[in-house]
Structures are given as structure tokens and as C-alpha cells.
TrEMBL record:
It comes from the Bacteria. Keywords: Hydrolase. Pfam families: Peptidase_S66 (PF02016), Peptidase_S66C (PF17676). Belongs to the peptidase S66 family. One of its GO terms (molecular function) is hydrolase activity. Gene3D superfamilies: Class I glutamine amidotransferase-like (3.40.50.10740), LD-carboxypeptidase A C-terminal domain-like (3.50.30.60). It comes from Spiroplasma sabaudiense Ar-1343. Residues 189-305 form the LD-carboxypeptidase C-terminal domain. SUPFAM superfamilies: Class I glutamine amidotransferase-like, LD-carboxypeptidase A C-terminal domain-like. The active site is at S100 (nucleophile), E220 (charge relay system), H291 (charge relay system). PANTHER family: CARBOXYPEPTIDASE VC_A0337-RELATED, MURAMOYLTETRAPEPTIDE CARBOXYPEPTIDASE. This is LD-carboxypeptidase. The keyword Hydrolase applies. The keyword Chloroplast does not apply.
Length: 323
């Protein structure tokens, strides 16, 4: 497959050149042709380029008709280019993947086009891992979401959010045993929406309250503390989204700080529901998707089934060819 890489926010290569090249080599060794956007090696202080330049990079990559488009890394300002994307260039057999600050772009594409949109890995963060046990599992789940009729959200045997081995290998990351919790009815079905909440809060997504009706909301975040999470969750309530959704799925929160309170994000969301006298929806916490390793791939705007008895999450995909 031909994989196009866009840098819509942070100057990825300049931050971690060794990891970036390791990620490219990883995908090339899997048999893919990796096409780098024109800003991949660029740095404009805190970003890869100006707003116009970043939008131009994205649109120019679309003209190359790659099979898959993936974000190089996250950042803080990809929402700046959403209004400049030429959505007419996006075909239904294109695939877009990324996470973190790519969320505004991914959600805009999922709303405005029929392309397949995947919340999962970014190039450098996930495929640049020096311990390939993580990148191999992440890659397998990405391919499953692209080539299989059923996308099973896996509970991996272990996970890590150790913030080491970024641009060179230092020592093996600590592995944590996994346990995903399910609180809800027997079976819940609905289309999946969501992504990185901190990034999505900078878009018009939460102004469209009808958009959330009977949906399953996925949220995750990175390097946030308890008070920041409360602010974001209260924003969710104020927007009206929390009143309309069927279920909330939490991804793991990388390097979450609870100030010693032992209050986790799912506990805080329950407090907000109770304080506002709203029935708490079905909850799943904390799946492997987002900033931790390895990561699953979730298909946005596609039907999802949560089986609370058997503790399973699946998506059924109508197969179609890629470019």
C-alpha cells in the first residue's frame, strides 16, 4: 500500500529524527511505500509550517491518491487547517488514520466524506517504537481494521505509557497488566464518534448536539491532570453531548495526574452525571487506544457493539476496495 504522511501540527522530524526514521523503516519493511508530505522535515518554531502551508501539504498529498493517510505525530493546532482542506479530493476508498491532535481532521473527514477514518496510531509515536513488540501489535490491529470484516477491540496482555526511549533506546519499558472494566446493559449498539477530547473541544463538533444522539462516545487524553479533566468533562455536559449518548468508552489516559486523590476519569464523569441528576450511561474503561502502547484502531462513524456480559467490543465493517 501507498502511505501518505501529513504533518498538520507539530514539527515531528525535528523533535525526534531517529524515531521518525525508525518508523518509516518499520512500514517499508512491511512492504509499504511511504510518501512524506512536504513539511515532514520542516520546523516553524512550534509547528511544521504556517496554516496555509500545512493545509497545502495535506491537499497535495490527497492529489497523490495514496491508499492510507496517516498523521506523523500530534501537537496542538491541527484544527487550524480543517477549514482549508479540499474535501472534494477525498474519495470513499481512501483511509485516514491518526490520533491525538489529528482528531479535528479525522472527525471532519468522517462527517463530510465517505472515506474510512481510523482513530489509532500515528506514524512516529507508534511505529517508531524501539521495542517492536508494541509496534507489531499496533500494526496488526491497524491492518485488521482495514482488511477484516470484523474489527475486534483487543485487550492486550500488557500495556505501557513509560515516557522513555523516545529518540533512542535506553531500557525496556515497564509492562502493566491489563484489565478493562465494563459497566452497563447486556448489549449496546451505536455508531462510534470521538477521539482526543482536548483537541475535539477546539472544534465545532460539540455544537452539533443532534450529532450525539444514540452514539457511542470514545474519549482519551495525554498528560492531563484531574482539574483539567474535570474542566473538559464539564464542557461535555454543557454542550449537551452527555445527555444524548448511549455509552462512553475511555481510552487509557497517558501520564494522568490525580493529585493523590485516586479519582480516575470514569469516576469523575459519574460525579458530573450525578451532580446534574442525569442517568449515567453505559461505561467501558480503559481500553488500549490513544497514546499508550500498543494501541487498537477504532473506526469512526461505524457501527459498534458492546457486549457487557462477555466483555467484548466489536465493529462490523462493510468491505470495499482501496485505491
Amino acid at each position: 500500500m501507498k502511505i501518505g504522511v501529513f504533518s498538520a501540527s507539530a514539527p515531528a522530524f525535528q523533535q525526534c529524527p531517529n524515531r521518525a526514521m525508525n518508523a518509516i523503516k518499520f512500514l517499508q519493511n512491511k512492504g509499504h511505500e511511504v510518501i512524506l508530505g512536504e513539511l515532514f522535515y520542516n520546523k516553524d518554531f512550534y509547528r511544521s509550517g504556517s496554516i496555509k502551508d500545512r493545509a497545502s501539504e495535506f491537499n497535495n498529498l490527497l492529489k497523490l491518491k495514496c491508499n492510507i493517510y496517516i498523521s506523523s505525530i500530534g501537537g496542538f493546532c491541527s484544527n487550524s487547517i480543517v477549514g482549508l482542506i479540499d474535501f472534494k479530493l477525498i474519495k470513499k476508498n481512501m483511509i485516514f488514520a491518526g490520533n491525538s491532535d489529528a482528531s479535528p481532521i479525522l472527525n471532519a473527514i468522517s462527517q463530510k466524506t465517505k472515506a474510512r477514518v481510523i482513530y489509532g496510531p500515528s506514524l512516529i509515536s507508534h511505529f517508531g517504537e524501539w521495542e517492536k513488540i508494541y509496534s507489531d501489535k499496533t500494526y496488526a490491529k491497524l491492518m485488521e481494521s482495514i482488511t477484516s470484516k470484523v474489527n475486534v477491540i483487543e485487550e492486550f496482555d500488557y500495556w505501557t505509557d513509560d515516557y522513555i526511549n523516545w529518540d533512542k533506546f535506553e531500557k525496556p519499558k515497564r509492562k502493566h497488566k491489563n484489565k478493562t472494566e465494563f459497566e452497563g446493559k447486556v448489549i449496546v449498539k451505536g455508531k462510534l464518534i470521538g477521539g482526543n477530547l482536548n483537541s475535539l473541544a477546539t472544534t465545532d463538533l460539540f455544537l452539533k448536539t443532534k450529532f450525539f444522539k444514540n452514539k457511542i462516545l470514545f474519549i482519551e487524553d495525554s498528560h492531563k491532570n484531574l482539574e483539567q479533566i474535570e474542566k473538559l468533562f464539564s464542557f461535555l455536559f454543557i454542550s449537551g453531548a452527555l445527555k444524548k449518548i448511549k455509552a462512553i468508552i475511555f481510552g487509557k489516559y497517558e501520564k494522568y495526574e490525580d493529585f493523590g486523590s485516586k479519582i480516575k476519569p470514569h469516576i469523575l464523569i459519574k460525579e458530573i452525571y450525578k451532580a446534574n441528576q442525569i442517568k449515567i450511561p453505559n461505561l467501558v474503561y480503559y481500553i488500549d487506544c490513544g497514546h499508550t502502547h500498543p494501541t487498537n484502531s477504532l473506526l469512526l462513524r461505524k457501527k459498534m457493539k458492546i457486549d457487557f456480559n462477555n466483555k467484548e467490543i466489536t465493529q462490523y465493517i462493510k468491505m470495499r476496495g482501496v485505491i
